[in-house]
UniProtKB/TrEMBL annotation:
Source species, domain of life: Bacteria
InterPro entries assigned to the protein according to its UniProt record, in alphabetical order: Aminotransferase_I/II_large, Kynurenine-oxoglutarate_AT, PyrdxlP-dep_Trfase, PyrdxlP-dep_Trfase_major, PyrdxlP-dep_Trfase_small
Keywords assigned by UniProt, alphabetized: Aminotransferase, Pyridoxal phosphate, Transferase
Name of this protein: Methionine aminotransferase
Taxonomic source organism: Arenibacter arenosicollis
Length: 378
């Protein structure tokens, strides 16, 4: 049959997850916690269900939740988004990203994507007839070459997608990076998707630079967030996007016919839970401790560690162990050592150094200790 996405295979997260299951492996592949969320949050959901929030939520999301998101963004990044017309609740960040692309990208439009890139961007562009134009992060420190970035902007460029903290490299954009981006887009009508799902997982006292902080970016950007990462509830698929009213108006035209609305009871629960900033401000330390435990466990291994400034992913170079391709190594790691990872080629890395795999450290300390003791045997 005719395919709009002839090259697309099943996502690497499903492939590695299934392989992990088949071999009863410790699953450090797909990014999700193997521990439970706060019981109070679960109670708030059942409470909302018992209170009768079991039918469609408003198309744009529960207002109380949008108000809390607006307050959070204003407190953290100093930008006011009107909850009425500048914030929409979505089914995870994935739906926000897909809907933004569908609402704005058509045949022949170019979208600049920084790679390695999270795997949902490229197919969403292509299925809408757009053309992904890649800017390769530097192979050693995963920084953007802004000269190269500027050279990719053409009269057809309609959108840029950035992701900070970055999955899979764990690097974050500095203030300088954001200013470079802002300056590069001056005098254009280019729209930005700023994928900030790991905004609350930043380490070593570094600060998350949200696109919403910068006047010249905020006016053209959809900032995308995800409660899945922040509250250990990836399975609830709840996210949002915030952006200027004019752009959000256009977004909602598509959103209403894409999903109409997201889970009602969960939105009610999150609106209450979000009122307490410690619920998200405690996350940096929580995951920094896990990163450090994981790294100390790997200190006697032959893996070379890439500095991780944020996210719950650790990228490692395995070239001191073997020079086989990353997907071959990752498969062997599951089969022979019962450890599942994500090979970096799952993030569109054609033509770059491939001796890298990503481990997710959003796991109990017990799991991390067990996994690293096995990884030290390689
Ligand atoms: N963007 C990035 C960079 C991610 O890692 C993820 C991971 N799940 C998403 C978007 C999607 O988030 P959600 O689960 O809320 O759809
Ligand atoms: N974002 C998660 C990761 O990078 C995976 C989400 C998914 O399976 N699509 O591992």
């Amino acid at each position: 049959i005719f395919s709009k996405l002839p090259k697309v295979k099943t996502t690497i997260f499903t492939t590695m997850g299934q392989l992990a299951q088949k071999h009863s492996a410790i699953n450090l592949s797909q990014g999700f916690p193997n521990f439970e969320p706060d019981q109070n949050l679960i109670n708030l959901v059942t409470q909302a269900m018992n209170q009768g929030y079991n039918q469609y939520a408003p198309m744009t999301g529960v207002l109380e939740l949008r108000e809390e998101i607006s307050k959070k963004i204003e407190q953290l990044y100093g930008r006011h988004y009107n909850p009425e017309n500048e914030i929409t609740i979505t089914i995870g960040a994935t739906q926000a990203i897909f809907t933004i692309i569908t609402a704005f990208i058509g045949h022949g439009d170019e979208v600049i994507v920084i790679k390695p890139a999270y795997d949902c961007y490229e197919p969403a562009i292509e299925v809408n007839g757009g053309i992904p134009v890649f800017v390769q992060l530097n192979n050693s420190d995963f920084k953007v070459d802004w000269e190269e970035f500027r050279s990719k902007i053409t009269s057809k460029t309609k959108m840029v997608i950035i992701n900070t903290p970055h999955n899979p490299s764990g690097t974050i954009f500095s203030t300088e990076d954001m200013l470079q981006l802002q300056q590069s887009l001056e005098k254009t009508d280019i729209i930005v998707i700023s994928d900030e799902v790991y905004e609350h997982i930043v380490f070593d006292g570094l600060e998350h630079e949200s696109a919403s902080k910068f006047d010249g970016l905020a006016s053209r950007t959809f900032v995308c967030g995800s409660f899945g990462k922040t509250f250990h509830i990836t399975g609830w698929k709840m996210g949002y996007c915030a952006g200027p009213a004019e752009l959000m108006h256009e977004f909602r035209k598509t959103h209403q016919f894409n999903v109409f609305s997201a889970d009602h009871a969960v939105q009610k629960a999150l609106a209450t839970y979000l009122k307490e900033p410690k619920h998200y401000l405690s996350l940096n330390k929580f995951y920094q401790d896990k990163r450090d435990l994981f790294l100390s466990g790997l200190s006697n291994s032959r893996f070379k560690i890439h500095p991780c400034q944020g996210t719950y992913f650790q990228l490692v170079d395995f070239s001191a162990i073997t020079l086989e391709p990353d997907d071959v190594f990752a498969e062997r790691l599951v089969k022979e050592y019962q450890i599942a990872s994500i090979p970096i080629s799952g993030f569109n890395t054609k033509g770059i150094d491939k001796h890298l795999v990503r481990f997710c450290f959003a796991k109990t300390n017990e799991t991390l200790v067990k996994a690293t003791s096995i990884l030290c045997k390689l």
